Amino acid sequence: MKFEAATIKDIAKALGLSTSTVSRALRDSYEISEATKKKIKDYAAQINYRPNPVALSLKEKRTLSIGVLVSEIANTFFSQVINGIESIAYKNGYNVIITQSKESVEREEMILDYLTSRSIDGLIISVSAETNDFTNLKQLHEKGLPIVFFDRVVEEINTHKVVTDNLDGVYRATQHLLQNQCKRISVIANNANLSITKERLAGYKKALNEYKMNIDESLIKYCDHGGLIVEEVEKVVDELLTLKKKPDAMVLLADKITTETFSILKKKNINMPQDIAVIGFNNSKYTSLFSPALSVISQPAFEMGEQAAQLLLNLIESKRAVTDFKLEALAPEIIIRESSQISSR
């Protein structure tokens, strides 16, 4: 049996009133008496009447819905960002359509087609690891779709962007290892094309340069799918552990890469920090319960979501074309725990 939502016509028929009277009463019009409005609203609540969003969108020329596209909803960082987005969106009467690319450019394209065919009012996006052609996003932006990027941004599209200060975060994490006498610090990064990868590697290299340490390219590894494919992480960890001069520390530049690498090292009976000191990006509250407790670069994910949502709503609701765009760079928190405490060696 097909579900049919209650309509204004149903209320009018049941109460013996005209549809125009019911419509005005539900809009709280001064033309309708308080007694009649109460009667109509009570009955509407009784039958669980909800305004038709399609009809409202035709009238308002807005759907009051925004699309959110991330790489993986299960990733703690992205789930916290989504919570931040929803807190602002729902407070302002907007619905949120949440989607995930799973680091696939093909899936990302399909999702963008789906969201825009549903006439969303705006889009908040962190691009997939595979995406290196931004033609579709550029076209959507040029056609007037309000877009805000967060975390993984597209530099050539002139709009609002909300990011972590990735360079400073990794710089401070690497500096912490250098101050504790680590000499061969390796990094495992996300896809080399991503903006966050470039920024985080710049922080790593800045710290090494300041300490007059050579940058050994054999210590820099990439996972094209950001840790979603475990075999990719296993491969690069094995490559690092079989180097003639093995690393004595690792800086892990993505959330999934961090947890997968930690798990692989445990399985290989690599002692942390005695054999290898480890610090990585992760927003999970459970990293303190790891054994050893994991040192992390924690991003202000909820605040990123709040800011991205507010900036998008500003774009959507602006009466004039917006030409002044912001790049919000929020400071990460470096949490030092047992996995990188070299003094315990």
Name the features.
alpha/beta; DNA-binding; 434 Repressor (Amino-terminal Domain); Rossmann fold; elongated; 345 residues; six-stranded parallel β-sheet; HTH_LacI; transcription
Largest sheet: 6 strands, parallel
Overall geometry: elongated
User: At the fourth CATH level, what is the homologous superfamily of the largest domain?
Assistant: Response regulator
The spatial strand order of the largest sheet comes to 2-1-3-4-5-11
In total, how many domains does the architecture comprise?
3
Helical content class: 40-55%
Low-pLDDT residue spans: none
Report Rg. Answer: 25 Å
Give the mean pLDDT: 92
CATH topology annotation of the largest domain:
Rossmann fold
Amount of beta strand: 15-25%
Class of the largest domain in CATH? Alpha Beta
Distance between the termini: 68 Å
CATH architecture of the largest domain: 3-Layer(aba) Sandwich
Helix vs. strand class: alpha/beta
Number of beta strands? 12
- The H-and-E topology, N to C, reads as HHHHEHEHEHEEHEHEHEHEEHEE
**DSSP summary: helix tally:** 12
